[in-house]
DNA sequence: AATGAATGAGAGTTCATTCAT
DNA sequence: TATGAATGAACTCTCATTCAT
């Protein structure tokens, strides 16, 4: 079920040129440094100097691997998207019932946020800095959701509803709760009682009219 | 029930000094210009030059009324917060049943977004540029919600649940749906079928277990 | 007979904005500094830092008055063009016979080169850096020549010939002799014997067939 | 009559080391690439990357054959000088009378310019980039002229005059007319009427007083 | 109250050259 | 002989802020 954009592209240099092993290492170092720096300072206050310093390479080296500051950012957002989706899918696959998979998926998402607060902030900046890629990001997560929702509806496990709308609602909840209780909160994860409240709301929202 | 931060503060100059009538006019012009410029270019690409040009004053004049670029931005976000809450409350007050008020509140929010897409973008930038004020923004909206939810729960109109968690869920849904169907969408408002789907989910989520 | 491009344009800032007295002074300082720096280092090795240092202003100040390095250069070339033509015309106007005016014009040109070797080098660079403006430069000088040549032909003082072609020949000679004997030469001016040789060639070249 | 600097020097590597066949091929490729790149972009905007890309070798390879960017440029100018002189001489040798040789020489020069506009631009840049070599360039052409002029004077074919001065005048005319009518002009060569005008001026200029 | 000239640090980016393989 | 990664200084240009009038 994996689509083309799930595939991790082979790393290449700024002109699309192939890389030696050494080149791959440097590129990775730069990408990781960029991730950290963007997260800490935000897109605009992240500078190439800071990134190259963090990667321990000279300024010019940056441009051997990326065409511009914007380009690394874009790549980072796409990369993050792949990783979030992977994390969620991996977790939810372990559940045996539909509801359990739902819970595990959310848990997986919150854990991901807790582990990569850096990346979370990057996504949020994309609204201004790379709007197209942000939409792509949401679309992709949405598509994954829609699939599962359709199956569950067909099986009568959840009520009939427009799966696309529902998918955006679920994303919304995940993102906001993640921000409020993981990023801004004091604890490292969404507290159990809050999590239960959230899942309660979601389950009722998804339920066939008349049960829940 | 209005709290202190609901009150529109009397405008003052950069040093907190009182303003003449002329001063008030200039300040207002600058604030409006800033709003437009921040919305169009984003925080970082908005420059003082652009703002003062739009306000038709000299560059130096800016600093007679604001201490820094950051400060105008903060003020703008706070101002926007007041306006959104006002718009929502005004609308929902016109409903007679709880569910109707809920619907009207959401409608009000989406209309506000449609009319002020500019301001919506400003809020989103605040995540990076003025995180404290952004949290303040959400908290205030949350508090308004919580009030209403508590009353409704007491009246048995909706199910028992942690009203704070629910309030954040409602905000999440409003914001994401607003972005997806109003800002990025082709239409000027959330299409009726989508709106119904959203409200359906919300009503089920809020419902007492066993009804809906 | 002065044309529009002979008129010295009122100095203005980068955005075309009007200048205060102080502004005019700074602009002039920058222009003079640019002239010196371009001449000494050539277009590419002339840097804004060097120019602003020479003008004793901060780097940013440069951009209050000029939009780019290229723009100052263009302006400088145009300015120089005005000055060369003025110098030549002024000198040649003092002559009483046609041949004398010819000699005085050349003398004026060589003197100008001797006094402004800086500007001479700037012109030469224009070939690469601002080719359109360079052609403009030659065209304007040519036009001035053509006028005088036509009159002289009508009066039978020189032979019939295409005045435009002749004008380019005269420019060519002036420029090359100026480079060879003034700029690269040891003396500060074209030695008398060389000058006489040059004028001899020119006079014969201009002469009506059969005399000289 | 050929002098030492007419001899095409055996190609060698950066340290003056001898080259294998393969080395010679690489070096030639670089030189040709450099010619094209300098001509298209000008000295400063020509980069080693562009040159090595055009030559299809790696960046580092450049420095196996040349010590610096400047050095290739110098070599290119010298090479060009050889070729222009060769082209002119070859053409003028075909004439039977002195005047005919004169015409053919000019024609040859203009044709060369038309065929190698690229190289023409390189020469012009040398004024700033490699002034000494530019003077060398003119000197060499001048010397060739002087020879011929002296012979013609001795034979009474042209008037007595300082042959050096005359040679610079002739170069001046060739260069300017070439620029004006070949490079900037619409046609591929100097139009016949212009050419006749030019040669008329030159012949009169060279003539013994009293004839022409 | 208002102007606009001036500042200067810092941004992203380029490029001739060197070095390790 | 050839590669291509790495360097780092230098470049042009922007902009929030201050200052003199």
UniProtKB/TrEMBL annotation, chains A, B, C, D:
The keyword Membrane does not apply. PROSITE patterns: HTH_TETR_1, HTH_TETR_2. It comes from the Bacteria. Keywords: DNA-binding, Transcription, Transcription regulation. Residues 47-66 bind DNA. Residues 24-84 form the HTH tetR-type domain. Gene3D superfamilies: Tetracycline Repressor, domain 2. Signal peptide: none annotated. The keyword Cytoplasm does not apply. InterPro entries: DNA-bd_HTH_TetR-type_CS, Homeodomain-like_sf, HTH-type_TetR-like_transc_reg, HTH_TetR, Tet_transcr_reg_TetR-rel_C_sf. This is TetR family transcriptional regulator. It comes from Nocardioides flavus. The lineage of its organism: Bacteria, Bacillati, Actinomycetota, Actinomycetes, Propionibacteriales.
């Amino acid at each position: 079920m994996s689509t083309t954009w799930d595939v991790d592209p082979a790393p290449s240099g700024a002109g699309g040129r192939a890389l030696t092993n050494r080149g791959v290492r440097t590129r990775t170092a730069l990408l990781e440094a960029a991730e950290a720096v963007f997260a800490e300072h935000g897109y605009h206050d992240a500078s190439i100097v800071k990134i190259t310093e963090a990667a321990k390479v000279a300024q010019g080296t940056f441009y051997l691997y990326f065409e511009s500051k914007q380009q690394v950012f874009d790549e980072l957002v796409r990369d993050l998207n792949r990783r979030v989706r992977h994390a969620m899918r991996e977790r939810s696959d372990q559940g045996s019932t539909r509801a359990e998979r739902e819970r595990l998926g959310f848990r997986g998402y919150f854990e991901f946020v807790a582990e990569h607060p850096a990346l979370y902030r990057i996504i949020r900046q994309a609204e201004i800095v790379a709007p197209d890629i942000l939409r792509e990001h949401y679309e992709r997560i949405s598509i994954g959701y829609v699939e599962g929702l359709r199956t569950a509806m067909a099986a009568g496990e959840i009520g009939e509803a427009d799966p696309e709308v529902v998918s955006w609602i679920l994303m919304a909840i995940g993102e906001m709760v993640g921000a409020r209780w993981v990023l801004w909160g004091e604890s490292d994860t969404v507290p159990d009682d809050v999590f239960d409240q959230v899942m309660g709301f979601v389950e009722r929202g998804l339920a066939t009219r008349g049960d829940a």
